Amino acid sequence: MLLVTGGAGFIGANFVLDWLAASQEPVLNLDKLTYAGNLHNLDRLQGDARHVFVQGDIGDSALLGRLLAEHRPRAVVNFAAESHVDRSIHGPEDFIQTNVVGTFRLLEAVRHYWSALPAIEKEAFRFLHVSTDEVYGSLAPTEPAFTEQHGFEPNSPYSASKAASDHLVRAWHHTYGLPVLTTNCSNNYGPYHFPEKLIPLMIVNALAGKPLPVYGDGMQIRDWLYVTDHCSAIRRVLDAGRLGETYNVGGWNEKPNIEIVQTLCRLLDELRPRADGQSYAAQISYVTDRPGHDRRYAIDARKLERELGWTPAETFETGIRKTVQWYLEHPEWVANVQTGAYRDWVAQQYAGESA
């Protein structure tokens, strides 16, 4: 059995769904079900005995100890995190509690469990920590992409909290021998993505006839990775990664935010034209940039390809079309996640004057 933390969130839920589609090995899914954790992401698994869901916090040491003792997982995959930069700017404490304190408590619970395992099980055990490229900071336009040797230079409360968690994972390996693996991924997109992030927000707003808020000049560059490619990379690292190593996971798709928004508008013009015949691009609105907004991220994923033979299956063109089609085909999911609290957050966050 695997223990997956944060398995009702965007990437975690996709991982659980993909895992159980390809394997008979059960999953124990621990998720706190904050605003971004959504059991509807896992509706396909209702009645599936291979999926055991527990609502709980990785910061709850007693719960972790009970679950590990009862279910005896052979690996832990840690997705549990607060992950939205804008929310971290407005309220950093939740990010420290979950990403730093929570990771510490999870590591400690796992360490005590692992240290008592029989020799064969102890040798086979793995702890895989899922992190982000944002720990590396920001790149100038002509700088080479982030490699695993790049120093940490986090610039937001979110990325600082994830950098701290990465350091804890590394230290628990070097101090205690815990068999850890870390992945640092670029921007994910795809099904079940909570609509506070760029791509789902633009799709949802476009269809609702609302403005498409673009920060600053829209020239912030990100590397984009389709979520099922990320899941396949995690499976590969879990299976064959070298203990104590970090693997960068990227899609080789560096694009400025404004190009992403324009691409989404073109796809929606094709797949769900506006009633008035105009392009969705007419809804683009430039808003005041976020504080400390990193200009460019880029991932060099050659280590993962060289050592473990992984490459992404989707191009940006195929992945973004699949994403738009998924949102068009799942209006009920979109409606269910857009609670009053979500609407209040979006109104607050993007109410700035046009830049």
Secondary structure topology:
Blueprint: E1 2-5, H1 10-22, E2 27-31, E3 51-55, H2 61-71, E4 75-78, H3 85-90, H4 93-115, H5 119-124, E5 126-132, H6 157-176, E6 180-185, E7 187-189, H7 198-207, E8 212-215, E9 221-226, H8 227-240, E10 246-249, E11 254-256, H9 257-271, E12 284-287, H10 302-308, H11 316-329, H12 331-337, H13 340-349
Parallel strand pairs: 1-2, 1-4, 2-3, 4-5, 5-6, 6-10, 7-9, 8-12
Antiparallel strand pairs: 9-11
Helix pairs in contact: 1-8, 2-4, 4-6, 7-9, 9-11
If you had to describe this structure to a student in words, what would you say it looks like?
The chain has a domain of 230 residues: NAD(P)-binding Rossmann-like Domain (Rossmann fold), CATH 3.40.50. It is 44% helix and 15% strand. It is built from 13 helices and 12 strands. A 7-stranded parallel sheet has the order 3-2-1-4-5-6-10, with helices on both faces. Helix 1 crosses helix 8, helix 4 runs parallel beside helix 6 and helix 9 packs across helix 11. It is globular and about 65 Å long. The termini are far apart.
**Which structural class do the helices and strands define?**
alpha/beta
Shape: globular
Order of helices and strands: EHEEHEHHHEHEEHEEHEEHEHHHH
Q: Give the biggest beta sheet.
A: 7 strands, parallel
CATH topology of the domain at 2-189 and 226-250 and 297-313: Rossmann fold
Summarize model confidence as the mean pLDDT. 93
CATH superfamily of the domain at 2-189 and 226-250 and 297-313: NAD(P)-binding Rossmann-like Domain
CATH class type of the domain at 2-189 and 226-250 and 297-313: Alpha Beta
CATH 2nd-level architecture of the domain at 2-189 and 226-250 and 297-313: 3-Layer(aba) Sandwich
* Count of alpha and pi helical runs: 13
Rg over C-alpha atoms, rounded to the nearest angstrom: 20 Å
Share of helix among residues?
40-55%
Spans of at least 5 consecutive residues whose pLDDT stays below 50 are: none
Strand order of the largest sheet: 3-2-1-4-5-6-10
> What proportion of the residues form beta strands (DSSP E)?
15-25%
Q: Distance between the terminal alpha carbons, to the nearest Å? A: 51 Å
- Total strands: 12
